[in-house]
Fold these 2 entries.
Entry 1:
Amino acid sequence: MPRTTVPLTLDRLEALDGLGVPCRTCLFWELDPVRRERLGDAEAREVKESWVSEVLRDWGSCGRVALVDGEPVGYLTYAPPAYVPGAAAFPTAPPSPDAVLLTTAYVVPDQAGGGIGRLLVQGMARDLVHRDGVRAVEAFAHRGRAAPGCLLPAEFLARVGFKTHRPHLRTPRMRMELRSLVTWKDEVEAALERLIGAVNPRSRPTPAHRDLN
């Protein structure tokens, strides 16, 4: 059962309609409370599409869609804080200036607990790790059963690599350093090179002369 993630586009956003995704018309992050309360579902859908289009045009990829056997089973979105006015409502705001905000994440119920959430976070990290000026991903989390707004559980974020950056009893702000992912990737690649060299030492190239000038 092949599983992967692909960038969020307008076409893939529309494909999520068939999943009954509750976040599809939710503008909790994209608008301030006064503006979003004035909109019906049809208008909210259009605003959501406009938001994705604007962020894609001005900043770049702002989400990942998880596919299992080619079919979408979940997605997440992220963006610089300037595109996320809803974040100002939290006592642990504002987010750090060197961080991108992870806002929404959703996995269809029949895939829950199967690692799709982790897969999405890993896809996001691979997308962001080489972006200029982005050192980390932050998220406003919730503790307890009742989630105020569209917040991700702190327990889930901790499992996929986030740590508490600004504590709060109910809505801590959590952070995942992208630098640690780069270090981990380099260490894995170096270990693989050592393993290949140990298994097949004849394949090692002759050291080249270095130009020290």
Note: DSSP finds six helices and eight strands in the chain.
Entry 2:
Amino acid sequence: MRQIFLDTETTGLNPEAGDRIVEIGCVELCNRKLTGNNQHFYLFSGRESHAEALKIHGITMEFLQDKPSFQAVADALLQYLGGAEILIHNAPFDLGFLNKELELIGRPRLETHVAAVTDTMTLAREMFPGKRSSLDALCERLGVDRSARTLHGALLDAELLAQVYLAMTRGQEALLIDEALPRHRTSAHASPELLNLDLPVLFASEPELKAHEAVLQQLDASSAGKTVWRLAAVK
């Protein structure tokens, strides 16, 4: 499965009022492994960023003077995204801008080029109901290091989102035994010294039990309550 995490930075909040994209960052994940085959574009639109937007991303008109237009990178971007599942945090916002840019150059909407678009903010709200679902909040909750994030940047945010997604969807595949590994069998000729060992039984401490339960709850949440131990409990 090919998945691409995408983020944009923009001049403002409203593409219908003339705001434009100034940065696009994409991070590729194949079969739950980061490939390093990422894409990153700074874009010149000829429009100044609003003061509030500039405080968020710090991308000035002067910096963008020699950067390409969206039209100049559209073919490369669509070819890269083609056929993949696109994952975006607060997808309606970024999709609104991307589809407006495509409309301005006479191209079909992004959804026609990709396999699916998934809103990771919706996933987070389903997994952690009633809790903050911003990218910063999820990084903090899931232990994803965001120390390099002083300003918002599309590529950095896409990288953080990929790590957050992997942490959110970490499920029972982590518990599966690799069938390619050799299996250890009990030998009928085990050493007498080993057979006669009286090994002590070590019980988990209270903090260890709590930590274990927290992991079980996270796995249970990521599988929507379909973990084996939950299903067995109701039989």
Note: The chain is about 40% helix and 15% strand.
